[in-house]
Amino acid sequence: MMRRVIVSAIVVWAVALLAFAYQDLMSGNNLIPELSHTKKLQYNATWKITAYCPGRCCNSRLTENGIEDYTNSAAVGGLTLTGLMDMGVHVVAVDPSIIPLGSIIKYNDTYYVALDTGSAIKGCTLDILMPEHRKAHDFGIQYCDDVEVFIPENPRGVIEAIKAKAGIRKP
Ligand SMILES: [Zn+2]
């Protein structure tokens, strides 16, 4: 009985937190319904945190087959990194094999949406989008034990909701 009370308290707290997070993310007042069913994970790990900018400097690499260039594009497709920043969305690149795209990450009192990936982003690593290369460079590499991951029941729905906000409709 006691156990059940504790569990529901955590769930309510997580939902309230996400309602707040949404306002912070989108600077609006409408809750994304997809965020109301979310499980919170706290990894017993030290996270490696890096930063990047929307430019070619941080979004291209030389491979055997030539240059891969993802300048200003989010891995979820259809959204530009600068457009997301203009909407007030804090973007983070994650390893999609451990965190589904569309999840919410709380780091350093800010809520980020996992909308991007990167070849160097593996495991408990976050790559935070910053508006200028200078800021990303100055951020360097940091480490943090206190990262919270909120995985929505339907992460794809969160991405679609952001695309709808951006004026992108499903074909
Ligand atoms: Zn850069």
Q: Main traits of this protein?
A:
single chain, 171 residues, alpha+beta, Barwin-like endoglucanases, eight-stranded mixed sheet, two-stranded antiparallel sheet, 5 helices, 10 strands, 27% strand, binds zinc ion
Walkthrough of the structure:
By secondary structure, the protein is an alpha+beta fold. It has one domain (2-165): Barwin-like endoglucanases (Beta Barrel). Helices cover 31% and strands 27% of the residues. It has helices spanning 2-26, 56-59, 81-86, 133-139, 155-165, and strands spanning 38-42, 47-52, 60-63, 66-69, 91-93, 104-107, 110-116, 125-129, 142-144, 147-152. It has an eight-stranded mixed sheet with strand order 1-10-6-7-5-8-2-9. It has a two-stranded antiparallel ribbon with strand order 3-4. The model is unreliable at 26-31 (pLDDT under 50). The structure holds zinc ion.
Task: Please specify the SSE layout and strand pairing.
Blueprint: H1 2-26, E1 38-42, E2 47-52, H2 56-59, E3 60-63, E4 66-69, H3 81-86, E5 91-93, E6 104-107, E7 110-116, E8 125-129, H4 133-139, E9 142-144, E10 147-152, H5 155-165
Parallel strand pairs: 2-8, 5-7
Antiparallel strand pairs: 1-10, 2-9, 3-4, 5-8, 6-7, 6-10
Zinc ion binds at residues 52-53, 55, 57-58, 133, 136.
